[in-house]
Every structure is written in structure tokens, then in C-alpha cells.
Design a protein that fits this description.
The chain is built from 16 helices and 17 strands. It has helices at residues 14-23, 41-44, 59-69, 76-96, 134-147, 225-233, 263-266, 292-306, 320-326, 328-335, 392-405, 430-436, 439-450, 457-480, 485-506, 524-527; strands at residues 2-10, 29-32, 49-50, 116-117, 127-128, 152-155, 158-163, 183-188, 194-204, 237-238, 243-250, 270-272, 311-314, 346-355, 358-360, 372-374, 379-380. It is an alpha/beta fold.
């Protein structure tokens, strides 16, 4: 079946929904979500959204904090433009119905009344939040607006397989130079039917890829689909070696994990070793509020030197009333496991969390591929550099998606070539798939063990060799069988895992979230540049 829209949105997080709402003022929009609309990293975001919202703060200080946290690899002009748009667009979220925590609940919903918290790497309280479920509150407001918008159609439980580009069209009337996107081939997970979604403009808002690591904080949909599709279509990726590990993910012997927001440390929680001693002050002047890459490496170093699997996050010095009011979600999750964090510490360990790299795009979401925008974690605008400053992710997604939907090219008339139906490959060979389906788990194990917080060139090369074999195996199956969601996801994970390793091997220094034990120092003389593949 072929669907025709003015605008196609792949992904249903903050970037996708903001773009859809703005684009709906210009034409008809289709939102394609791999599962439900709430199944995205935005909904998992606890801490908040950073912006200059206090008279004591300044754009210059937020810019410097961002640049410094990114190990000076971020683009100053990009950082400035995104940060300066922040306050206006947070007001936009409020106007759409986002219920941020306020200083005075009886007061109005202006920016001056927002309660602000502190997170690692910041020099001011500048993180607007909604208790410890900020992302969920934003998603509730955006989904409500999208569902009642007559110009927006929502397609859930569908996964984009490939962007429709020159690679697929028949070129009946001659070659079309460059690379253009005319929509996507989309698999209905219920019927396993592949449909064509034609669109003048496509927004790639598919999020990150932390599922390529076995220990991560992301929902199971975060398999790098958008990054992989863009890569396979000829788009460039940047800075894929910079995978941020969140320092404090809940640790359990069963391997179940969930994020423990950085805002908890912002309110006074302290990281401690198994003997109860604090340790972060010996690693950084900001101690427990150092940038994430430094805190994660410090924990990793301490745990490995002691042969331990987790450390403690102690919030017991924070008044109980404040803890329960600000962090009700964490309280409920911990109580399910018999932990009262107002009286006892929380077991935590670092987990893969966020991709600072991604599909190269401008602050208006423009990519290498004509008619294709990208925003959110799938994209690399140059804001984060080598390591993301806490709570800048929602800010970037919001600003870039809003700018993309208001880009002048949105009004372009697009001539569509003859787009063929998806090439059917016969039956799905379940017996053969059983043999190679464990590759998804193997990818996670290899990446966690060899491409984690601290890396060596020898193990990176070993991981690359193994993953290239895995990709060939998966791709061979993909090319000869009817398509299924699990196959597409595993293919995408292999593509992105290889991109991460190749990028890591090309950067022979340590910077931000990329730490190489062979070359533990920064090398500004040779590596003050982006890694482009």
C-alpha cells in the first residue's frame, strides 16, 4: 500500500512530535512510531531541560559550560544559537501544556516561576524539570496536541526499513544526481506488510542506539535505526566514538537497570565506595557534580581496581520530604526492590546512555540527503562535542526540530520518481533465523566488554573483526528472506556498532566520552576535529 503525505516523521520523541506539530501548519503529516508513542528516550528522561531561566545566570555561562563539558570539540556558533533559543521554546512547551514544577503552584506559568535544579557540569541552577519525570510530562503534552490535530495521522507499531532514495528508484527518465529522500519503506509489525510512505520532506527523529551495549538506560526501541538508514543511504555520520555512559544507573544482580537522575546529585547525593568513603573529590574539583564522562570513568576505575560491580549513591542527607516531592518516580521504582533511599544508599554503576554523535545535520536539521531532516539524538549538530552536558539533549531536540519545521525548504515542491513496491523475498526462514538471532545479544556483549568506558586499540580491532562477520551474516539473511522487525533492528545495531568502533580507532587520543588506555591524554595538536564517516 502507498501512503502520500506532505511530511513524514520517523520517531515519536520530542523531536518528532515538535516537528509534526509545526509542520501540520503547512500540510498533512504522518508520524511513524516503532511501538507506541510513549516508547522513546524522551519519555525516559528524568532530569529536565537546560536553559538560562534565572536572572543570575547568562547565555555566556551556559555556552561555556557546554563547550567545556564537550572537551572543547563543540561548535561555538551552534552552541550559542541553540542555547539562546532555549527560553522561548521552553515557554512554547509550557503553552502546549507541559506542567513543569513551579516555585509557587498558585502563581502563573511564566518562566520566572519555574523551579530550577542543578546537574553535573553546570555552574548555575538552570534545569527546568517536572519532578523526576520531565520527559513523560513533555510527552503527555505533545501527544495530546498531536492526537487532536486533524492534519496529523499516527501509525504505531511500524518500523522504517529504508529511506526511499536513488538506491531504490528505477531512473526511467535518466539519472537523478545527488541523493534525495522521498519517504520510507515501512514495515507493519502486526501484518509484516511493507508499505510505501511518500513525502516531500522526511524528519528522522528515531533517537539513539544504546541498545548496542548490554548494560544501558534506553528503551528496547533504541537500536540506531535512523542512523543506520542514513548511513546505508549515503549520509555521513560524525563523532560516533563519543558514547556517553550515565554514571548512575540502578544496579541489580539480575541485570535490570533504570536511570537514577543526575538531579539527585544536584540536590546533594554523594557517590561512595563499598566501605562508605566518598571518592569523587580526588577526580575533579566539582566532585559529584563533575561532567558525566569524568564521573563514569572514576566509578569504572574504582570498581575495577576493587573487583566490585557497583558503588553507592547516598541521598540520605537530603531531607526526606524534599526527596519524595522531587523524586517520586525513583522512589516508586526503588521501593519495588525493597529500597528506601531516604534511609539507605542506592547501588549504581555506569550504563550506556546517549550518543553525542549521529547523522550530520545543521541547527535547522538539514542533512547531506536532500529532503531529509534529522533532529534529536539521531543527529549530530555540533552542540555536544565529545561529551554532552546534562539536560542539553531535550534542549537540542526541541530547538532543532522547531527550526527544521520552519525551514524555508518546507514549502518546496518535490517531483517524485517512480517508486517501486518493496521487493518481496519469499518466506521467512524461521529455522535459519533461530541460528543467528542470538547475534543481537552478542553485539551487546562485545560492545560492553571491548568498546565501553575505557578502550584499547587491540580490543577495538578484535571487536571490529567479530562485528563485521556478524554484520555479513545478518545482512546475508536480510537479503534472502522476508523482512521482519527483529532482523531490521539487528542489522541496524551491527551497522552502528561498526561505525562506533571505526570512529574510535581513528581517534588516537582520549577526549570526552572516548577514553583510550593506549593514549590517555588529549592531543589538541592532531585531534581538534570531528570524526566523519
Amino acid at each position: 500500500m502507498t501512503y502520500e503525505y506532505d511530511y513524514l516523521v520517523l520517531g515519536s520523541g520530542i523531536a518528532g512530535l515538535i516537528f509534526a506539530l509545526q509542520a501540520s501548519k503547512k500540510g498533512r503529516v504522518a508520524i511513524v512510531s516503532k511501538k507506541g508513542l510513549f516508547d522513546c528516550n524522551t519519555d525516559y528522561a528524568q532530569g529536565g531541560i537546560a536553559a538560562v531561566l534565572d536572572a543570575a545566570d547568562s547565555f555566556a555561562e551556559h555556552i561555556e559550560d557546554t563547550f567545556s563539558a564537550g572537551a572543547e570539540l563543540g561548535k561555538k556558533q551552534v552552541i550559542s544559537q541553540i542555547i539562546e533559543q532555549g527560553p522561548k521554546l521552553i515557554q512554547y512547551l509550557i503553552d502546549l501544556g507541559t506542567d513543569f514544577t513551579r516555585i509557587d503552584d498558585a502563581y502563573d506559568r511564566r518562566l520566572e516561576n519555574l523551579s530550577l535544579t542543578m546537574e553535573g557540569g553546570h555552574t548555575h541552577r538552570r534545569v527546568a524539570y517536572a519532578a523526576d519525570s520531565t520527559g513523560h510530562q513533555i510527552m503527555q503534552a505533545l501527544i495530546s496536541q498531536c492526537r487532536k490535530n486533524a492534519a496529523i495521522d499516527i501509525f504505531e507499531n511500524r518500523i522504517a526499513i529504508d529511506l526511499i532514495t536513488q538506491h531504490h528508484v528505477t531512473n526511467d527518465d535518466g539519472f537523478i544526481p545527488g541523493i534525495s529522500c522521498w519517504g520510507a519503506y515501512v514495515l507493519d509489525s502486526a501484518s509484516n506488510q511493507v508499505d510505501i510512505f511518500k513525502a516531500r520532506k522526511t524528519m528522522l527523529a528515531t533517537g539513539g542506539a544504546a541498545q548496542i551495549f548490554s548494560h544501558n538506560t534506553n528503551p528496547d526501541v533504541a537500536t540506531g535505526d535512523g542512523m543506520a538508514m542514513a548511513r546505508l543511504a549515503g549520509g555521513r555520520l560524525a563523532n560516533m566514538e563519543f558514547v556517553q555512559f550515565h554514571p548512575t544507573a540502578f544496579w541489580s544482580p539480575e541485570g535490570e537497570t533504570f536511570l537514577i537522575t543526575e538531579a539527585l546529585r544536584g540536590e546533594g547525593a554523594i557517590l561512595k565506595l563499598s566501605d562508605g568513603s566518598p571518592f569523587m573529590e580526588q577526580y575533579h574539583p566539582k566532585g559529584n557534580l563533575a561532567p558525566r564522562d569524568i564521573v563514569s570513568r572514576a566509578i569504572d576505575n574504582e570498581l575495577k581496581s576493587r573487583g566490585e560491580k557497583f558503588c553507592w549513591l547516598d541521598a540520605t542527607a537530603i531531607p526526606k520530604e524534599k526527596l519524595l516531592k522531587h523524586f517520586p518516580y525513583i522512589d516508586s521504582r526503588l521501593r519495588e526492590r525493597g529500597i528506601d533511599f531516604s534511609r539507605e544508599p542506592i547501588p549504581v554503576a555506569p550504563a550506556a546512555h546517549y550518543f553525542c554523535g549521529g547523522v550530520i545535520s545543521t541547527i535547522e536539521g538539514v542533512t547531506d540527503i536532500r529532503n531529509l531532516f534529522a533532529a534529536g539524538e539521531v543527529a549530530c549538530t555540533g552542540l555536544h562535542g565529545a561529551n554532552r552536558l546534562a539536560s542539553n539533549s531535550l534542549l537540542e531536540a526541541l530547538v532543532v526540530a522547531y527550526n527544521a519545521a520552519n525551514h524555508p525548504s518546507m514549502d518546496d515542491d518535490v517531483q517524485f520518481p517512480n517508486i517501486p513496491s518493496w521487493r518481496l523475498m519469499g518466506d521467512f526462514n524461521a529455522n535459519e533465523w533461530v541460528i543467528i538471532s542470538h547475534n543481537r545479544e552478542i553485539i551487546g556483549t562485545i560492545m560492553q566488554g571491548y568498546v565501553g568506558i575505557r578502550r584499547s586499540r587491540r580490543l577495538l580491532k578484535y571487536a571490529l573483526s567479530r562485528l563485521e562477520n556478524i554484520y555479513n551474516e545478518i545482512n546475508n539473511f536480510y537479503q534472502h528472506n522476508a523482512v521482519r522487525r527483529e532482523v531490521v533492528e539487528t542489522r541496524n545495531m551491527a551497522v552502528i556498532a561498526i561505525a562506533v568502533i571505526r570512529s574510535a580507532l581513528s581517534r588516537k587520543e582520549s577526549r570526552g566520552a572516548h577514553y583510550l588506555i593506549d593514549q590517555p591524554q588529549r592531543d589538541d595538536r592532531h585531534y581538534m576535529h570531528d570524526t566523519i564517516i
